[in-house]
Amino acid sequence: MHVQRGIRLTALRMHAHARFSSTSIDWPRPGRVGMIGLGQLGQAVVGNLLRAGLAPVIYDVKGESSASKLLDQGAVWASSGKALAEKCDVVLTGLPRPTDVSAAMGLTASGVGPDGILAGLQPGTVWIEHSTTDFENTNKIRAEVEKRGCKAVAAPVTGGMQILKVGKMVALVGADEETFQQVKPLISLSAPRIIRCGEFGHETVVKILTNMLCAVQDCAMGEVMMIAKKSGVDMKLLFDAMRISSGNSFCWETEFARVMDGTYYPDFTSEMMAKDIELGQSLARKHGVPMLMHGQVAQIYDLCMAKYGKDSGSTIPVKLVEDACHTSLADEATSKKFKDWTYTTEIADGSYVIVHKNIDNPHSEISKKIS
Predict the structure, then answer these.
(1) Claim: this prediction has a pTM higher than 0.90
(2) d(Cα 139, Cα 94) in Å, to the nearest integer?
(3) Residue 72 sits in which domain range?
(4) How many Cα atoms occupy the beta-carbon half-sphere of 230 within 13 Å?
(5) Do 210 and 141 reside in the same domain of the chain?
(6) pLDDT at residue number 27
(7) How far does the chain reach from its first CA to its final CA, in angstroms?
(8) Is 292 helix (H, G, I), strand (E, B) or coil?
(9) By three-state DSSP, how is residue 238 classified?
(10) What is the Cα–Cα distance from 357 to 338, expressed in whole angstroms?
């Protein structure tokens, strides 16, 4: 199998407080890793592969012009999904919806088309699915992949696009043990924090549920922020106080700043969030789970898309509250404090911890005193 003899990574050692400093990778021939789907996720993954010294083969239905920066950095363009699969030992996909994944694979109502990934897969190839999609559809594709003597790995990623771009994402992985061990070093280039999720398909369920909880928080945070604003509470104080309280969340820590700059977290769109809620509702119907909360959240996102557009950021429910109250949560003084804000992440005692950068952080001094 190509992957068994092909992947050799050395000096891939992650410290809790720093990225890996050096990576040496040998691959049988240039371009043996392929990526289909060059949205924000796909471009970030390809960027990590390039930094590691690989020359990934890439393809997207938007055409070669959509990948000019990646091609300038050493990526190799393929003319179709089939052409990419014919060249690669590992094929990665990162696409928005289940229908997009099926189309990329070449699955049609009448069978397998001539230009998709399935038409070009060579025996021994590994397919790694980074998309957040319908796990039943993924299982269907998995069966087609395995018919061709290939292996399938489901590895949706979570943790924020900013973290993916610097290779510190979390991957939720479903695969047989042998295949997992073969591709783990490759996945680690983008997501060194890997969680095995048992049976193939369970990782996608976990990822969908993660985004569903984020959607609830995005809908709730605007309301509490507006109550604070109307009560005269300083917004930066609110941000800092909430971070050290029982009301804290990943969304609060990483998306508050996107309200202050008026972008409402454009890295993940309201349409993508609505898609994940819909996938979760489908699972709920299958298992007879009532969706009182998430049914309301789904309606809120439908309203947001109708009012602000499908490409509006996933934190856009906050703007619904601002518009209803005719009050902007951001003010010049607070926005200025978040102007250069960014973040990274650490794992502390098994939990994801946000590390804030380029912002006054009163909790830093508290931590020093406690330690």
Answers:
(1) no
(2) 16
(3) 2-199
(4) 12
(5) no
(6) 39
(7) 50
(8) helix
(9) helix
(10) 10
